[in-house]
Amino acid sequence: MHHRILIALLGFALSQACAAQHRVILDTDPSSDPDDVGCMAMLHTMASRGECEILAVINSIDHKEASLSISAINEFYGRGAIPVGDYKGYQTHHDAPKDLYSHMLANEYAHPLRTHSDAIDSVELYREILASADDESITIIVIGTMHNLFALLKSDACQYSSLSGKELVDQKVRLVATMGGNFIDGSGYDRTNWGGSSELCGYTEWSCLNTERNQMCRYVIENCPAPFVASGWEVGCGNYHDANRGNVMTGQTLKSLPTDHIARRSYEFHFATRGGSERIDRHSNDQCALHYAIRGEGKNYQAFLDGDIDLTESGECRWSPMPNRQQGYIQKRRDPESIAKEIEELMLGEVTQTNSIPSDPFELRRVRPNGKHLRLAWKPARDEGPSSWVVGYRVYRNDELVGIVYGTQFIDEYSPQNSTDPVTYRVTSLNAGGKESPGIELPIQPIRN
Hints:
By secondary structure, the chain is α/β, with parallel strands linked by helices.
């Protein structure tokens, strides 16, 4: 594990110019605060500049409009083919209140995802992507609750991989970066993402302890085998419990964008439903976590790494040095205004359209049988340029679309044993902008008894 610590954690001190492109899964909870939109604007801008590839965006909240709003944001930035996942562990999904920007986005902007039920089960999507990924190649950024990561770590072997969820994360994930906790002087009380705190019940109702979220987060912290780094509430919201460097306030410059720009519209809608939209800047908790996850420490942040995070049942966060434990937290290294300026520049969100056709996958082959079904596998297309990249593959049987997958394998219920006629499979690459490659073909002969 020593090489992982050096690469995944200490390597974050490298400059942006020397950093490798990040392959990112964003785990978010679009609902009341528009900083989730701000984060997605940042991520799309960074993708346009070649800093990252967005492999999926996954929702953790129980609103029907949440996954639809994610789809709308991806579509606005010209990348509507990015898969959208959803936490399916809730008993039911509710309609979002009409004063939430997620409800507005789902009703005013186009979204390729037709209904929330069409969003992919989060555990299935996580496992499918991770199973086909290179070792230690995936960055998971969690700016919502831990529902999805909890379910992933608890998952068992499946059609995509014989590994458990913990084993997949250990093998494939280079970093889990999360917004949550509170680490002033290495200790503080969580405000809500990790379940809140019993200590803060008198501060605000939504900061009060949520036992279920607290238990989920404690399980993740105790069982996540990948490097785990937290950006606490004090990083973006500095006046909370006497942090000594102030708030990182962002959003006001969004007013320089067209009035229908999705980021500006989201921020103005949020503040308009709360009394006015002249000032639309707010503290930047989620943005700081994402900023660090992609660009590392640099001049903005100081990371306290290679220790152990302890989240108590009451919501208290403690960190202590511990060799090889691979858990840490960050604090601001410079003034909040400078950090805010850098974040806002990314939030202005360059909308980059691309008409490029992706390259084909290669080495399409049939692998060992999976029961009565047919299993195909291939080597991934290697389109790594800025603006667009391969997010999935379409599988055709005799020119009929039979599946869209987000890894490099496909299991078809069809079996040559059930037919006397040969079939031809064709697998095409699908990039983030929805463009499709010509594809490669594999004829399959029927099995004759």
